[in-house]
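Recall the central idea of this unit: under ordinary conditions, the amino acid sequence of a chain determines the structure it adopts. In this exercise we apply that idea directly, starting from the sequence alone.
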Amino acid sequence: MKKRSSLQDSSFPILQQFLGYLGTIKGKSQRTVDEYYLDLRTFFRFFKLDRNLTDPADMEFADIPIDDITLEQIASVTLSDVYRYMNFLQSERKNGAAARARKVSSLRTFFKYLTLTTGLLKENQVLQLETPKIKKSLPKYLTLDQSKQLLEEPEGAFRERDFCMITLFLNCGIRLSELVGINISDIHRTGNDRSMRVVGKGNKERLVYLNDACLQAIEAYLQVRPRNLKQDRDALFISKQNKRISNKTVQYIIKKYLREAGLEQYSTHKLRHTAATLMYQYGHVDVRVLKEILGHENLSTTEIYTHLSNEQMQEAIESNPLSEISPKHTFNPEEESSK
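Accordingly, the structure predicted from this sequence is:
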């Protein structure tokens, strides 16, 4: 709560209302709300600098206040202003295409709110704003053998816990924040109900089904999980301080095992990529089913995981029923020379 208040206190009233709308009406997480704020703060700092609205003129960019921005000034924003802002982000702040695309999205959402939601503006000045094109690259992931190797790494006092975390990452494709937020009461292990409730982006809940490997790993860990906790009693994963494990701690643990397995080029998030890729390549999972498993809002996000390995592409070509038909006449150099 303190963090939200401090952000809103340093902004102008209309922006405060917008941030509140994102959190309470749209159900965005605090992290997402903060990202919108930071993006819009950067834009309005540039806007004041570009329009010579700062006092004094030599003020550092990071010190430019935005609490005095008015509705009239917002209404005066033009596409030219925004394109100059995009150039500023690229040339001065060295923002890549992805960072600039996110800032474009923040501006679009803000001006859509001012026009369609509140009616404070009659015209959406950024409606025609184009999004920078992002180069799509294939996600990095562990191979099946590398995944098995990583599962063999956990040792020591917390081996059951660490093995369970890696197992859930590699089998369920859950996000880091989703794993940390799992409660014991979220897990169903009776009868045909073999599932786990997780809370994803935007506080959206979904069910993740558990296979035998996940259930066995959870059972083994619960046998040694600390009891009689003073706090976080329902948390599944507990740190050595006897409280819910943190994102940072999980990242440290996973990175340690990746390094020990000779896979230091990968990260915790790459385990999610690995799970999605293995499900698609070995389980022949439909991309729409994969979308639901991963908790993606848009199908286009899921499609980055449907890349094919070179072996699969070669196998597909060789499996063509016409692949065994050879030409009736083959080239013979001696025959050609005698003609």
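The chain has a mean pLDDT of 83.
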